[in-house]
Design brief:
The protein is of the alpha+beta class and 516 residues long. The protein folds into 4 domains: 1-42, no CATH class; 58-300, Thrombin, subunit H (Beta Barrel); 304-398, Roll (Pdz3 Domain), CATH 2.30.42.10; 429-514, Pdz3 Domain, CATH 2.30.42.10. The chain contains 11 helices and 28 strands. Strands 3-4-5-8-7-6 form a 6-stranded antiparallel beta barrel. The N and C termini lie far apart (82 Å).
């Protein structure tokens, strides 16, 4: 066996004919020792084979649809519109104290959900966005927040032709705007079937991020039916994608691999104001519903059910308290007096499980179904009440933004509160009678509700019940006096989940599940 000092270093020279010549560099062995020859290395004669196949090539799609995607410039006389400069469709961001803890932790401080519109270096009084042509005679779709407040809107085609557009109509609640330019035989985009869009499918966006016209990005659909609690767009079941969307992409098309429009790019989740992998598009069927109404009347009407429901998903504790088979559905907290829901027999405590045969999996599923129907439409609402399923036919009214349940004013200080009485119930809730003045301030009837003076039970306190709240119902039983409240709560046993309908001190009602 050779020692390490006897190792031979070799240089391998390989010719084009694959012959190898071995030359010694240094040797510590005798001439009689055999020499180890390394195998010859073959030169690269041809490109390596493709290891990944089947990836999409979007060049044909872009060539076909690109000419129908336009650049939109909104001009405000002398100054930039506050809405155009804003980073959300309604010009408002939620305060950090209004933001769910999940988003604060996940996205970090400064979390925003902007509408990607205003260019940071755009000239004063101008904002840039994207749109697309939907008819050969010049109808153009874009976002409401792209053109809101504009004195003049210019549309530039991919061949650099420029038009001054007329605003046919605009709808803030859906963030859809319809424009009209004078043209003939214009390139146009076909609309696809947004209802058939599924997570995992490819999606393509074309737009003008930061003013860079005809920029193409691609990704996949991440989710469908996303609700947006921050931008007054509860009637839009957004398509979520990981397609790169930035400021200036607003109003541009989201396309499937057939080149059909499935959505209008509208919003992004962002910690910095730029793309972070979570983008949202308005489904094209929602947008075309708005287009039809804007063409016909210049305004959009929506159906109204007349209920206020819990925004969060039903919890497992509420499921037990309501006798539900699972946590699906929307829990009704209030019913607007005189509304279609009240006329049809919907009650607080009902859980809406379906609307027109469509399953309501979470509360955010309900508003788009109802809101995208015209007033006068009859809708069958499936509910669970006291563990039993029933169907109710509701004829929708026109949405009235003033008729919102739970808008009672906060009770004002003043006067002397009625004395509280001790609580002999498992919840540890000490009630007190409400005087007539306080009932008026809370918008309650003369025999409606019992005040909460103190909360001594841990379960009730952890459930969020606070002094100053008002109990309207225990389960499905209404309470209007201290005696009625005590009578209902005395029946609650340890380990039993009870549902309390509580009117908050700040207004608005909610069902609270308490398990003492």
């Amino acid at each position: 066996m050779r020692s390490p000092l006897q190792a031979l270093s070799l240089i391998l020279l390989t010719s084009a004919a694959t012959t190898a010549v071995v030359l010694p560099i240094a040797t510590a062995q005798s001439p009689q020792d055999p020499v180890a020859v390394a195998p010859a290395v073959q030169p690269a004669q041809s490109p390596a084979p493709q290891l990944v196949t089947g990836l999409p090539d979007f060049t044909g799609l872009v060539d076909r649809v690109g000419p129908a995607v336009v650049n939109i410039e909104s001009i405000v006389g002398g100054r930039a519109s506050a809405r155009s400069q804003a980073q959300s469709p309604d010009g408002q961001f939620p305060g950090e104290d209004q933001m769910p803890e999940f988003f604060r932790r996940f996205f970090g401080p400064g979390f925003q959900m902007p509408g990607p519109d205003q260019q940071p270096n755009a000239p004063r009084g101008r904002s840039m966005g994207t749109g697309f042509i939907i008819s050969a005679d010049g109808y153009v779709l874009t976002n409401h927040h792209v053109i809101a407040g504009a004195d003049e809107v210019k549309v530039t085609l991919s061949d650099r032709r420029e038009f001054t557009a007329k605003i046919v109509g605009s709808d803030e609640r859906s963030d859809v705007a319809l424009l009209k330019i004078d043209g003939k035989n214009l390139p146009l985009l076909r609309t696809g079937d947004a209802a058939s869009v599924k997570p995992g499918q490819w999606a393509v966006a074309i737009g003008s991020p930061f003013g860079l016209d005809q920029s193409v990005t691609a990704g996949i659909v991440s989710a469908v039916g996303r609700s947006n609690p921050y931008a007054n767009q509860q009637y839009v079941p957004f398509i979520q994608t990981d397609v790169a969307i930035n400021r200036g992409n607003s109003g541009g098309p989201l396309l499937n691999t057939r080149g059909e429009v499935i959505g209008i790019n509208s919003q992004i989740f962002s910690n910095s104001g730029g793309y972070m992998g979570v983008s949202f598009a308005i489904p094209i069927d929602v947008a075309m519903n708005v287009v039809g109404q804007l063409k016909a009347t210049g305004r959009v009407e929506r159906g109204q059910l007349g209920v206020q429901f819990q925004a969060n998903n039903i919890t497992s504790e509420q499921m037990r308290g309501l006798g539900l088979p699972d946590t699906l559905g929307a829990l009704v907290n209030e019913v607007v007096p005189g509304s279609p829901a009240e006329k049809a027999g919907i009650e607080p405590g009902d859980v809406i499980r379906s609307a027109d045969g469509i399953v309501i999996r979470q509360p955010g599923d309900l508003p788009p179904i109802v809101g995208n129907k015209v007033p006068g439409t009859k809708v069958r609402i499936g509910v669970i009440r006291e563990g039993r399923e029933r169907n109710l036919d509701v004829t929708l009214a026109a949405l009235d933004t003033d008729a919102v349940a739970g808008a009672a004013p906060r009770a004002q200080a003043g006067g002397e509160a009625p004395a509280a009485t001790g609580a002999g119930n498992a919840l540890g809730v000490v009630g007190q009678e409400l005087d007539a003045n306080l009932r008026r301030q809370l918008g309650l009837a003369a025999n409606e509700g019992v005040g909460i003076a103190r909360v001594t039970g841990d379960a009730a306190a952890e459930a969020g019940i606070r002094p100053g709240d008002v109990v309207l119902q225990v389960g499905r039983t209404k309470v209007g006096s201290l005696a009625a409240l005590d009578r209902e709560l005395r029946e609650v046993k340890a380990g039993q989940t009870v549902m309390l309908l509580v009117r908050s001190r700040a207004g608005g009602s909610r069902f609270v599940a308490v398990t003492p």
